[in-house]
Amino acid sequence: MDISSGRSAFAVFHSDEAARLGMQREDRVALHFDGTRVDAIADYSDREVSRGEIGLFREVWQQKHIRDGEIIEVEFIHRPPSVEAIKKKLLGKPLTYNELYSIVSDIVKGRLGDIETTYFVATGFSQPWSIKELCWLAQAMADTGEKVKLAGTVIDIHSIGGMPGNRTTMLTAPIAACLGLTIPKTSSRAITSPSGVADTMECLAKVDLDISDIKKIAEKVGATLVWGGSLNMAPADDHIIRMSYPLAMEPYSKMVVSIMAKKAAMGIKYFVIEMPVGPTAKVHSQDTARQLERRFRAVGEHFGMKVKVVKLREVEPCGHGVGPALEARDVMRVLQRKDNRSHTLERTALRLVAYAAHLTGKYSFRRALKLARAALENGEAWRKMQEIIKAQGPNMKPSIDAEEIISSKVLTHDIKAAKRGYVTAVNNYAITDIARNLGAPVYKQAGLYLHKRYRDKVHHGEVLFTLFAESEERMDLALHALKKVSVFEIS
Q1: Which residues contact 322 (CB under 8 A, 6 or more apart)?
Q2: Whole-angstrom distance between the N-terminal and C-terminal Cα of the chain?
């Protein structure tokens, strides 16, 4: 069957045979053929398969090279122990390393369906996780995938996300490489924002590289900016992200484990975490930020990693652009020293690099900050970004001017102020909602460009922000949404 579930292995039976066998949807079956066993989730249909046939989803027949007409033996099997472990956690009981490993392993192997995996994700909201469980879960995620060992001083700088338009990572990677540090940056696509680092970098270069390419580029150039989902590193996390995406929600426990497992698998030794804190950020209060800091540091210690958490009070996007191409333009404006660059984005990136360099013990914070600023101002960081783009495989010419990133064919619409006053609040939830309605991150050119910032003075009729869309339908959807939410509060 030319159908993909996206992850799980499915076996479809004719409904008559399913009834005869007493089969229920979501039952587990083992398929035996040619000395191979595949565990699958059972389903049934009246039309897609005939009696005596089994319909296999693409995940099974492509990976196992099964031919049409091949004889397969079917065996009913019990639900895996991982399901019992999930139930145990839902009831508020702690899990052992072996139980956590069974869950993670079964997610990777497709033995758990979307329903069970969603319940597992939900435990992060309903039941507290101990530090020991977080360490074990991160360990299990790292242990079920590939790992990398790199030469040099291997660091990472990571924003926990949740704030639109925060693309400091794409600045910190080339700047850190200019200081002689190795930063093999692997990032996710959007989870709770209109664009992830991978979505934004994809406007400039290929991001779906394999581990051997990443190792080669990181050791030669000093930095990579790639999508972690194309790798087999902590692979369970990418399946779990799919469960989190529809509601744009991510439990804090899952976030800590997700980030630390991937950094451990990449062999990171010095790790700086940018944590935006604000009323419409992912982390709302300083108390929550401090709790998260303790968890990050504890899991880091478990892996022998030095961790620095930088808590930043943020009430608005770090840059002006929100959406893949608009955020890429923001980054390039800083690297190319444009007059219209985001100074907030620049200042934040420089300080994060200085924290990371200081963490290694090679530089004082002040010295690292001075060197990082010099790398930006003398063009070294821009040249380093061009090296990264060339090495990964350019989607645009490496020397592209920032102003050429946005297509002349994209549709735009200015939103103007209905009254004069000052911007007294910025609703980041609304920004995310509008950007998604415009088509981000799937449509790279879609998103918003903010002309005004928090506390700016506004005149009646002045442009507050501009919408970008690739179709009239998407633009209409965003304009309709703007009737229900406000991006800026002006008073």
Answers
A1: 164, 165, 194, 195, 431, 432, 435, 440, 447, 448, 449, 450
A2: 59
Tens digit of each residue's pLDDT (9 = 90 or more) over 255-304: 899 899 999 999 999 999 999 998 888 899 999 999 999 999 999 999 99
- Domains, in order of start, for the chain: 10-77 (2.40.40.20), 81-128 (1.20.970.10), 155-231+244-402 (3.40.1030.10), 411-490 (3.90.1170.30)
For residue 248, pLDDT beyond 80: no
Distance between CA atoms of residues 242 and 343, nearest Å: 34
With H, G, I as helix, E, B as strand and everything else as coil, classify residue 18: helix
Q: What are phi and psi of 308, to 5 degrees?
A: -125, 120
Q: What is the mean pLDDT of the chain?
A: 92
Write down the residue that tokens 């049934």 correspond to.
44
Coil/strand/helix, residue 285 = coil
What's the rounded Cα separation, in Å, for the pair 427 and 464? 13
Tell me the two tokens of residue 303: 């892996």
pTM score, two decimals? Answer: 0.85
Determine how β-strand 28-33 pairs with β-strand 73-77: antiparallel
- Provide CB contacts within 8 A for 441, sequence distance 6+: 189, 190, 194, 195, 196, 199, 323, 324
**Residue 318 near residue 163, CB atoms below 8 Å:** yes
Listing DSSP states for 336-357 in one string gives TT-TTS-HHHHHHHHHHHHHHH
What are the phi and psi torsion angles at 439 (to 5°)? 120, -5
DSSP state, residue 394: B
Distance CA 34, CA 477 (A): 52
Tell me how far apart the alpha carbons of residues 74 and 63 are, in angstroms, rounded to a whole number: 18
Q: Where are the beta strands (DSSP E) in 278-387?
A: 306-313, 321-322
